[in-house]
TrEMBL record:
This is glutamine synthetase. It catalyses: L-glutamate + NH4(+) + ATP = L-glutamine + ADP + phosphate + H(+). The lineage of its organism: Eukaryota, Metazoa, Ecdysozoa, Arthropoda, Chelicerata. It comes from Leptotrombidium deliense. Belongs to the glutamine synthetase family. GO terms for biological process: glutamine biosynthetic process. GO terms for cellular component: cytoplasm. Signal peptide: none annotated.
Amino acid sequence: MANYSILQSFLSLNQPDDKIQVNYVWIDGTGEQLRCKTKTVPFVPVKPSELPIWRYCGSATGQATGNLAEFGLIPVALYNDPFRRGNNKLVLCESVDVEDKPTKTNKRSSCLSVINKVNEDFAPWFGVEQEYTLIDVDDCRPLGWPKKGFPGPQGPYYCGVGAEKTYGRHVMESHYRACLYAGIPIAGENAEVMPAEWEYQVGPCAGIAIGDDVWMSRFILHRVAEEFGAKVTFDPKVIQGDWNGAGAHMNFSTKQMRAKGGLKHIEAAVLKLRDTHNQHIPYYDANGGKDNERRLTGNHETSKINEFTSGVGDRGASVRIPLQVAKDGCGYLEDRRPASNCDPYVVAEAIVRTSVLLIMK
Ligand code: ADP
Ligand code: MN
Ligand code: MN
Ligand code: MN
């Protein structure tokens, strides 16, 4: 077991001003897991474009086969590093292959080109409600669950308080503050319906920042949990049976929806999402997982996978218009279909294509 006071004594050594540690973070070949490696640079970066492109071994990350695997990392979004602190940074990177083309699991460049097409006229905003489950590294069960059998049935855990109702609040609290320090706009948090499951909300973010911020928030969550010896899973249905799954509801608006009288634009977008339901579902499971099949059962605050439903304040719908939005007559809509392990770049691109550009791929 590591001795953390010794570690702390090394981390408090003076750091030379011209030796800044930048942790390059990227999505690996699973399309779900993240990787990182650190580069020392001789200046304090202010923009990601000031940082050099860096190469890595694409074979070791499931992104290339064979020896010609010098894949590239292009820095695209810069954050303060809540772990090393000071002038040190985290930087989210797009991964590219040996020809500098986006790798298979790099969905950012395609999302960005779609957002760039609509940004001036529609100014899309997004917010993701990221659900996750904490897992005990020793017994691989949700954190705090009994070694044998199950905790009491769902009911008291959602937004619960007290040692018998919440498991892993230390991870949630540390992650929340670490994200704010990094520069990620966390809108809030809550304990979820299944014990050891939590939610935090990212946003609202303008355009491509939603994908960057959600991915970096996931990295920070894994990293925080690592400090505590816990594991994070974004699996959308961790425990079969009468236990809620985990989603990543995508909230979406355009400037027309946010303006006075915007509800009619929201309703029009809901109809577009209805007409393209059969295209969205496989697209959201972009990494080949059958994730929404396991989760979208029609129970546990989900819709059925093969049916599109919508409604005001309806938490069993595919797409919901929040009650307050209906009351205000403007605001945003919520796509409740994306699973917790979705790629926010893919979901954001699909929603913009369908509801603004009117063309899915
Ligand atoms: P729920 O009622 O579904 O649990 P939450 O309060 O958990 O909703 O999350 C709401 C999400 O909506 C947050 O991520 C927030 O950033 C986002 N959001 C708020 N306003 C907008 C908007 N105008 N456009 C897009 N997203 C928004
Ligand atoms: Mn929520
Ligand atoms: Mn939730
Ligand atoms: Mn929601």
